[in-house]
Write a structure and sequence with these properties.
Elements lengths: L1 H29 L9 H20 L9 H27 L1
Helix pairs in contact: 1-2, 1-3, 2-3
Family: Belongs to the YggT family.
Keywords: Membrane, Transmembrane, Transmembrane helix
Protein name: YggT family protein
């Protein structure tokens, strides 16, 4: 029973990270569309994704017109997701 609960929690966390990643892809592509980020949806998404992207933008300056910080943000998010999987596997092998 406890193993199922832990599994459900980790599945939910992985699902949330996946949804956040897809949303961030949409938000980044919105910068290619004129006026998309100024719309109500764009402003709502900015409140969700800018707090995560901003530290990467401070560390990695844009190269001309190209902002590479979202790529690093995706890599960090992917590493976080892989870390969750590793923690889950560790918990399952150690305690169940």
């Amino acid at each position: 029973m406890a193993e199922q609960t832990v599994g459900m929690i980790f599945e939910f966390l992985l699902f949330a990270v996946r949804i956040y990643t897809y949303g961030m892809i949409v938000y980044i592509f919105m910068s290619w569309l004129p006026g998309a980020r100024e719309s109500a949806i764009g402003q709502f998404m900015a409140k969700i994704y800018e707090p995560y992207l901003e530290p990467f933008r401070r560390i990695i300056p844009p190269l001309g017109m190209i902002d590479l910080s979202p790529i690093v943000a995706f890599i960090v998010l992917n590493l976080f997701q892989r870390g969750l999987v590793a923690i889950y596997q560790l918990i399952v092998t150690q305690f169940y």
